[in-house]
Predict the structure.
Amino acid sequence: MFTKQIMMRRMLFSLIPVFFFASYLYGWRVAALAAVVFTSGILTEYFFEKRQNKKVSEAVLVTCALYTLSLPPAVPFWIAAIGIIFAVFFAKEVYGGFGRNIFNPAIAGRLFIYISFPSVMTGGWMVPGNFGTIDAVTSATPLETLKAGGSLDLNNLITGIHPGSLGESAVILILAAAVYLIATKTANWKIMFSVLVSAAVTSAAIGFLDSSLNINVLQYMLSGSILFVAVFIATDPVTAPKKPASVWIYGMIIGFTAIIVRTYSLFPEGTSFGILLGNTFAPLIDKIFTKVKKAKA
């Protein structure tokens, strides 16, 4: 039923521990949400690929996994289904299927419901820990606490026991996944590095220019989804630029945009906008560097 794609399979392997950690934090709801998302996403791609006598790609499994882990734990199932259907249909299949899309489908789907249902997407948090036995909607996420001028417990940020999207808080597991993906040549370390460094430098610059924001760079980097996005989404080989020099600019665009939106907009997080902007300019960056190389030759 599925087209075998080794790189996509490795990405799925790297995400399995993150899913287990999310299940520890939020319990049965993670499995239920994943079931809804995977079923909706696979069926959407199957419907379009079958008409062309093609198989469903394993890439759709990665899209479903990343999309699920990017969601707030208390998001309604029907909203999650709408988002993944939009992701596979409008961000992938209308472009011709795997390898032809210009935007990362998982982020496109998340951003669609993020803008369409803002109150749900920015307030669907749950108290984490103990397999989700405490299912009340909780107070502020780390990013909301920082925006309000508060401080955070660094141990909680590192261990990941704090409210947020399903996969964003598993800092240690995300870093371990990064090592695995780099070692197996599944993901480009230059993109990860440029995203994180540009985000850190931008945070430090903003904090220096406006001390009233009281920005702690380390807390800023360990909060929200910047690490998750840098490792798993910015490195998408289809939507990232292809030229070696281009990836540095691409990562800088994502990191810079994410921090600017996070700090100055009404949205609590800006990584989705960073990826969208990076995807938009990726072909142009490649074209510019191709011309520069030809001119030097």
Notes: The CA atoms of residues 180 and 261 lie 30 Å apart. The first helix runs from residue 6 to 26.
